Each structure stands twice: as C-alpha cells, then as structure tokens.
Request: fold
Amino acid sequence: MFYQQFFFLATSIAFLFQATYATDIPGQYIVYYKEDADRIATNQRLFSSSESASSESVRVVYELEKGIVVAGVTDEQHQLLMQDKAVERVVPDFYVTIDAVQRNPPNWGLDRIDQNSLPLNQTYIFNYNGTGVRVYIVDTGIRASHTNFEGRVTCGFSYFGSTCGDTQGHGTHVAGIVGGLTVGVAKKVQLMDVKVFGNDRLTSFSAIRAGFDYIIAEKRANPTIPMVINLSLGTVGVKPEYEVAINEAVAANIVVVVAAGNNASDSCQNSPSYVKNAITVGATDELDLRANFSNYGACVDLYAPGVSIVSTYIYGDTSGARLSGTSMAAPHVAGVAALFLERNPTWTPAQVWTAMKADARRAIALIWWPVRQFLKFRTTTRLLLQTDTI
Reply:
C-alpha cells in the first residue's frame, strides 16, 4: 500500500522553528571577494597571518564560487575583514528552516490544478510530463530508490559530502509532488537532489548559497536544458542574500519557485518569499481557501494545493505520507513550470511566469454580507494555479 499515515512532532512544529531561529549564526560570515582578487593569496593573508583577522578560532567552513564562509570570527576580526582591499562585502550567515506543517484531510492536489473550478472530478489530465526538464530540489535530500521516481533522481550536490539521500523526509515529499510517477505533477521530469540540510531541521544560508553556485554552474555547462529550482524553505525577515542568489539564477535563465512560508503573516516580511524575481507560492485547502498557516500578501504570486498532500516518503521504497505547508504548494508550481518548459524549452523565467499567470484563475470566496444578513460568493485577488490550457 503506497499511502501510510504518519505523524511527526518535528514536522508539526516546523513553523515554530522558523519563527524562533530567524537569527544570524554567531561568529559566522560569508566573505565575498572582488572579481580580480587572488583567492589563494587573500585566504593566506586573511587567515594565516598573525597580523590579520586570523586566530586559532577562525576557520574556513566552505568555499563558494565568489567567496568563502568563515566561522569563529570576533567583532574585531569582522571589522578587519570588511576593510580588506580584496573583499567586496561581508554578510552574516544565518539560519534557514524547512517549511512544513502536518494536517490530515483527504488528498486532492493533482485533481485540483487541472480544472478551473470546483467540485473536483477525481481525475488529473495532463498533456506534458516534464520530459527533458531538470528540477533542482534544494532541500533535505531525496530517497532516490523510491519506486515513484523510476531512477530519475540524480545526486547533484551535497553540502555535507559526496552523497545525498534523505534522513528527514521533507525533500523526498517535495520531490514526489514535483515529479513522482503517481503523485507528481511532471511525471517524467529529471529530479536533481541538492542537499542543503543534514539531520537537523536548521541549516545555514551559506549551504543554500553553495547549492545555488552548483545549479548556476550546471546551467552554464548545459545552457539548452530547461531548469527549475524549488525552495521549500525559509527565514523570517528580509534577507538580501536570498535576492542576490535568486537574481543570479534567474539571470542565468533558471525558473525559481519559493514557498511563501507558514507563519500566517505577510510574505513580504519573510525570505525568500519577498524576492520579486521568484515565483512565491501560498497554500490553499480543498475548498480553495487560504490555508490557515499560509503566509499571504502582495508578495504571494500564486496559491496552490498545500493541505494534506500525499507524496513519497523515506520509510521504504513504496512509502508515502500526508504533509501540509507552503512547502507542499511550491512544488506543485515547480512541476507546472516543468510542463511549460517541456512545451517551450527556450522560454525565459519571465515567459514561464507570464503563461502561468495567464492560466491561473481567481479564487471565489464565500463571505458574510451583514447588510442583507446572508452569505454570498465573491471573487478574490488570490490567483490559483491551473494547468488546463497546457
């Protein structure tokens, strides 16, 4: 039996982690070098010389394409780094969390996105399946051996070493929504595992940045392959480094889809949901209502199914679970982006969004009209994801 019902405390309180750990990592910084800087010489000068910002406590955590991540930095050393002639800028590294919440109504996501109104008709009709498109799942990893993936998962990048895999389940669930054979939107898409979370529900932005470096390099090496990034993660507060990374990806012709977040708050005050060049996705339930946990506001571009979505899981090669959150809504949109790109492989991110927006439908809400003392239907400003014209 594919679907089994699981309950996880860690999943149900993910939104609490997101609110609590929206802080900088003490003593850890991302140091971006100027383009003409000699990286080897600069590293030796900054972190080996007793006359520089170095000390026994300072260590290089990771080397990025345009800089390095350093930890154990004091306030005085931070000032020295910012004043160095080879350094373009120094920014605090910060915590990032998975976006997910647990609920338990019936599954309905694929059924909803292929029709422009309720009620559901118990079918998912599609003309494309994502063949030839890569979707990069920037997450906890993917259980590649799951039968729903049919061998279409590639371990692209792991911040933690040479292997990928998933010990938490979040990334596997997200990947299934994007491209699982029975539970996915784009059923033949190539799923690229970009593992930026280890065994903890927290990671650093520098891990995300390293993942973006890998993906952008992949696009440069394979410019004709259509690519999509899914980010079902987030940080409370506006963090400009997300915008820098996303804008670089979009400039490289990669579609970026992000979850709006699960704080029931303004998406414009959260990251990466505030970033204009990303497609920001909120969550709806099976009545087309905004999920009570979903972030909202002007920065949400689309709403997609995100309550009690059945997808692949890590407890075996045929296992599944129901999860809820904007983490589940975003991969519906990433999957639809893959469908558009299969049909139009040369499209830019702007063209994908224009087509997606044109295909979307405005949600209808049932509201109380106090003047006449009855309920009435009203068209809202919320755009609902649709695939019926692809």
